[in-house]
Amino acid sequence: MATAREAREAPAPPLTVAHFPRPRPPLMDRLVPKGVLVRIGLIIACIFFLLPFYWMVNSAVKTTAELTNFPPTLIPQVFDFGNFYRAVTYIPFGTFLLNSVLLTSGVTLGAAMSNPLIAYGFSRVKWPGRDFVFGICMATIFLPFPVLIVALFDIFAKLGWINTFLPMIVPAFFGSPFFIFLMRQFYLSLPNEISEAARIDGANEFQVFLHIILPLAKPAVAAVTIFAAVQAWGEFLAPLLFLQDESKYPLSIGLQFYRQSHDVAYNLLMAASTLIVLPIVALFIAFQRFFIQGVTAGSIKG
Amino acid sequence: MQSQRGAALIAAPRVHLTASEWRQLRTAAPFVLPWVIGFFAFTLYPIIYSLYLSFQSYSGFGDAVPVGFANYKHMFTDPLFFKSLYNTAYYTLLAVPIGLVVAIVLAMLMNQNVREVAIYRAAFYLPSILPLFALTFIFIVLLNPGFGLVNFFLGLFHVPTINWLGDPSWTKVSVVILAQLGAGGPALIFLASLRAVPTELYESARLEGAGPLRRFWHITVPLITPVILYDLLYGTILGLQIFTPAYILVGGTSGGAAYTAGPDNSLLFYVFYLYKNAFQYSDMGYASAMAWVLFLISIVLALLIMRWSQYWVHYEGA
Questions:
Q1: ipTM
Q2: Model-level pTM?
Q3: Cys-Cys with B103: which of A69, B152, B187, B193 at CB 3.0–4.6 Å?
């Protein structure tokens, strides 16, 4: 078998390959410069996917009169930035925000601590029955969470956890199958020799994990951390079930209060939504690489 | 993805362990034990416990009273149960195929050979990580029959005004459209598998005169079937548990949701009705029976899809 180097050094073969007649490019390609049609399609799709986001910001800075006017104005005639101030004073926004931050921090910490550890045991340590147990772990991805809610509520009620953040935070410390899968994929891509070398030097398995593998797995840990944070920030069902006091509500549940009466303060609702969505957009722009790697578990570049 | 290994994994592990295998277990235990404990405490135990509750009459307070199969029998005479089953089936049958097509189209758009493709990828992916509750609120504004942008836009093409959230025949469609904003996530997984298709395959097909449609159907589709299977499975399970958009669209905690579930109960999805039974009507027994029926439905559907997939999933090297 010729190596790449040999191939490069070999003299160029004479051009004996039959010359295929180039097929005439399709009509559209001859009329429109290359890439224009593709870009038109891409931009139309972009408009569809970014429109909700634009409309949220757009509605957030409109006056109530302009927002409820028909036809809607694509660009606000009057920019009323006071909506943001009114939005955070209309409901106890500060309390809800603090609760969201606490919840998100707890869940994120739990996910960042548990999943790298658990996935290590499913990939870089050999033990009998490992793949069987891992199969069960992966099967739980396909278990609908609502199947568990009634029993979980009763269990948490008996533990006295209702109206605390514990029902959301504690399970995060026991790993989640998606994140375990993601971390495991990354671990499997690291060569075994690194671990072997450390073991020969007398390191125990936990030391190998902590000092050798974990530092190499930083990108994957970052991806898990970011995903956990985004997920916890948007969590709706669990806080709805397990929190009852208004003073404990995170933003996801608290947003309901913009429509206490029959009158809905749409522009304030959109202003608050903008404030809630903004941290995620910022996170996404800052750490885009980790999002893409995370979803595709390292199988895509660029 | 992981499901393709499923069949081989079901083979039960051997019971007799050698000394070195015990040592391996001791090494692995500190790593895996957190998940095992969590699995027993927050998954397995609740499933078994709700099976027990499903045979009880239980309000959430006081003692549970055994009632045999009464909760399960009640389903057969409960029109709202069938309504919720119908709504969920309607939604899932619409959302899953549409979601699959949108994700694949999006992945192909993300795979275009233009310089600024990273920007498009980011734009398509971003909505899928935004909180669903926030997107739902945006939809309430976008779809408003009085001042919403969507009806204004359709009006330009002389489409009569649609009462998206007020007309029972459109409410579920609205939720299906909303769900498409999350297509960026699966699209990225499809993109990864599209890029794994060897370009030589396309080249040789082109030389043999295959057009773009034939190349797509005979090269791309077979090679992405494992991801299609995963998307079908996961999409179906997600479809069965649709709740948040419906809950918010009908008015949430602040009023509406306590009484209705959209016009003509058209947004009374299975999990919504389960939630109402458990937490509004304090009928934890009936809700547990519904939870178990949902559990069985999802297992049966997952197995059926896996079985069916044997006829069309193409594994490389298999």
A1: 0.89
A2: 0.88
A3: B187
